[in-house]
Amino acid sequence: MLQSEVTFPVRYYETDQMGVVHHSNYIRYFECARNTLMAEGGYPIEQCEADGVVIPVVSVQCRYHHPARMGDVLRVTAAIEKVPLAKLVVRQAVYNQDGVLCADGEVLLGFLGKESGRPVRCPERLLQMIESQLNK
User: For residue 12, what are the domain limits?
Assistant: First the structure.
């Protein structure tokens, strides 16, 4: 499995009047962890786009378990468990500083040619990065 995580504090603007993280922010947290995963794997999203492939979100599934609050330090994970063909599935989770699961889900990503906007295969460099980690 190829996986990564990022840690950061809940920021005031991410919360409502009760100090609870607004549900929409979990999707942003997922994105932060995915970008870290690609960068740590040696193929940052910026390079993928420079190589002519964009990776749009096709769908997001998010289950909420426990509210994150102002003052919490969150650990957000991203994991790829299988080699993508036309689409890439990333499993994601958000934990608070006590290890309590706040939210989890999965994000389905597609691959489009940057110029054409048409579906393309997973970039070879991304495939190599994923395969090298899955074959360990």
Answer: 2-134
Pairing of strands 53-54, 101-110: unpaired
pLDDT in tens, 78-92: 999 999 988 999 999
Structure tokens given for 135: 């074959």
Would you say 92 and 50 are in contact if contact means Cβ atoms under 8 Å apart? no
Residue whose tokens read 């080699």 = 83
DSSP state of 10: P
Q: How far is CA 5 from the centre of its chain?
A: 9
Strands 112-113 and 53-54: antiparallel
Q: Which residue has the tokens 């790829």?
A: 80
Which amino acid, residue 69?
R
106: three-class secondary structure by DSSP: strand
The number of folded domains in the chain is 1
Residue 65 has pLDDT above 80, yes or no: yes
Cross-strand bridge partners of residue 63: 104
